[in-house]
Amino acid sequence: MRQIYRSIVLMLFVGAVIIGGGFAAFAQQPSVAAPEQGFVPVKNLPSQQEQLPAAPLVMTAYAVAWVVVVVYLWSIWRRLAGVEREIAAVNRRLDPGARR
Amino acid sequence: MNRLFSILAVVVAAMFAYAPFMIVNAPYESTMGLVQKIFYFHVPSAMTMFTAAFVCGVASAIYLFGRKPQADRVALAAAELTVVFGIVVLISGPLWARKAWGVWWDWDARLTSTVVLWLIFQAYLLLRRYGGPGSDRLAAGVAIFGMANVPFVYWSVEFWRTLHPKTTVVPSLQPGMRGPFWFCVLAFLGLFTLILAARTKLEQRRADLEELYLAVEEP
Q1: Nearest CA to CA, how far is A6 from chain B (Å)?
Q2: Staple partner for B187: which of A74, B15, B35, B163, CB 3.0–4.6 Å?
């Protein structure tokens, strides 16, 4: 029963992170500035430097993909090893003469 | 079967090892620059998510109407993979959007329908885990519903006005980008095949274990 509650809490947490992240991002939208009045020459405009570097975003995206796949593969391997152990234990019960 | 699995595992591992070199050498997109490189993992993950949802739906239909237990095992494995690749899609997408759109998230048709698709398959897994006896058939119905949702997600960018790039992006890729992109798609589909086989084997072994327990309980 405790495991059920723990799994439901985990699911709710993942859902809350995704939906909450969306709302947090929405709340962080920059407010729309009042439009410039009159003519402003291009050379007088603030320099259009890159505000947000792309490299950390790209690296995070690739790292997340790898981590998610590796963790899932590890979980399959762990569950499969558990089932194999249990099968071996039941087989020993069925055939007590088998080597332990 | 084991030999085929091993060969495919080596090929897929080699493809994923080589993919970063292809992605780095692919030409830069003129307006987005470096952040466009997320595309080479984001779109193949989305394609794999759709494939997994489709496999789950078809296998569920076979189980529902043909009563084949092996199809049910494949459906359960594919549902988990839909959720796993969905996580990759739903995280890599906002990382790209933050740079390209200036926001992490927008509740537009493509993004919202992708979350709904992901939640449908989460519902499938919850049903399978906590639904009790008979939940496998109910979950199979949910999976067919989830599969039917896939075309709506794919064409949502054509039906509604969205921020998300349209379906014409992939066919209109520059020649230098096509090679790395389709290489990544193949690598992801290979990975999907491998994990699907491994996860289905886990369900097969669980079924074997249940049979063994029944044999123990019999007088």
Answers
A1: 13
A2: B15
